[in-house]
Amino acid sequence: GEHVIMAEPIVTVSTVAACLEAGYSDGRGINAKFNDPMGLDFTRNGEILVADYSNHCIRKVVLASTSSAYVETFAGTTGQSGYRDGDASQALFNYPSSVTVSSDGTVYVADSHNYRIRKIDGLKVVSTLAGSGQSVVIDGKGQLASFCSPQDITLSKGNNAGGFYVSDGGHCIRHVTDDGTVSTVA
User: Fold this and answer.
1) Least buried of 14, 41, 59, 119, by fewest C-beta within 10 Å?
2) How far apart are the C-alpha atoms of 146 and 81, rounded to whole Å?
3) Are 112 and 162 spatial neighbours (Cβ–Cβ below 8 Å)?
4) Is 49 helix (H, G, I), strand (E, B) or coil?
């Protein structure tokens, strides 16, 4: 007779950073603390950027091995919510919910309670790419556009390459081009 052999992959789950209690602390492995880590993405160097939602900042996880990591603040002023562009260490976010990293290393942030899409360039300068700061759905370019509450963000792929997509709390999906032009697609 015929036999079917099924191979099941072995999956190992390891905690590489934080996990024991909410808070804020840079450091190694489980000594680091997050407060509602949300969306994450990999940098070109294999580090992980995390939207640390309730700490109002973007954190970087440097993987030392599959079971150990070092966590540091990448952008934002920990524990301070607000809105301020400029040097990453002085910038303010208000509940950042997601990040995505482009092929050139530019980081885009869904800054949900500032109702904006923020950009962090290679020199670690934070700027506003799109969004007026008003919680309403309006298509347009730069600060003429508005978001209800941007939640998740992902780079465009395939035939739609260029820019990225944002799930907006206004019950819609938005496309944002590299120059900050926002359009509602669904």
Assistant:
1) 14
2) 20
3) no
4) strand
pLDDT per position as a tens digit, 48-79: 999 999 999 999 999 877 667 899 999 999 88
Cβ-based neighbour number of residue 7 at 10 Å: 5
- Residue type for 126, please? V
Q: Which two tokens stand for residue 171?
A: 């019950």
Query: Within 13 Å of residue 181, how many CA atoms lie on the same side as its CB?
Result: 5
The pTM assigned to this predicted structure is: 0.89
Cα–Cα distance, 32 to 50 (Å, whole number): 13
